[in-house]
Amino acid sequence: MSIEARLREVDRRYARKRPETSLSNIRWAELRKLFRYKLGPEPSKQDLDNAIREAVGGDPMALSAASIGEAVKLTLAQRGYLDIRTMMPIDATPTQLKAFYRERKRERDRKRWRKRANVKEVSNMQTNVSRLDVLRDVIRTSHDKDPAH
Fold this sequence. Notes:
Blueprint: H1 3-14, H2 23-39, H3 45-56, H4 65-72, H5 76-82, H6 94-145
Helix pairs in contact: 2-3
């Protein structure tokens, strides 16, 4: 394969369009998820978009996270259940939200550290057991070789 052919292959491979994950796309997806939750699973994408524009009063990207949360009446429970990250809930201040997520992270970290500690204890116990087995074998073989016993 010639160098030109290889370069064309590289260009063709990297020219593929990947879906863009911008804040706009993420926010629209989260708004659709929220409205599907509120309206039920049946509405079409066009109906959802119309309901979102009506509730928000225009383009959701033109508003802040707090104002969108107020417009769609997003609660902390809904935000957590639906895993929404680009809108602020109406029933929590930013400092309360920060404290909530900090505590949730602490709990995750505690669980992870407990799990690691248990694994280490088990592996240490297995190591100690295997060391005892080796010591027993050494004592047996030395005892068997000793003619005085």
